[in-house]
Amino acid sequence: MTTLTLKQGRGRELTLFAPQFSERGVSASAVMVNAPIPRPLIFKHGTHKYRAPAIPRRGFFIGEITLTRVD
Asked: Which of these, 44, 57, 56, 54, lies nearest to 4 by C-alpha position?
């Protein structure tokens, strides 16, 4: 299974399982976060930036999630 790990400046990490890329961003069917995301934040992978929605607690979640690309 392919994963994509995105990082945010304060030590937060968001891992997407089976990511699917499009022009608008990236989507996945499961996500794991190491800390709560209190509001939409920008996460980075290399030179690409994505806006992640708020996730109230850390853990592993199964469900469709879409991160929009930020230019």
From this structure: 44
For residue 57, give the DSSP letter: S
CA distance 42 to 25: 12
Q: Is 20 helix (H, G, I), strand (E, B) or coil?
A: strand
Biggest alpha carbon–alpha carbon distance for the chain: 29
Q: Can you tell me whether residue 9 is helix, strand or coil?
A: coil
> pLDDT by residue (tens digit) across 1-51?
899 999 998 899 999 999 999 999 999 999 999 999 999 999 999 999 999
Burial 34-68 (b: 16+ CB within 10 A, else e): eeebeeebebebeeebbebeebeeeeeeeeebebe
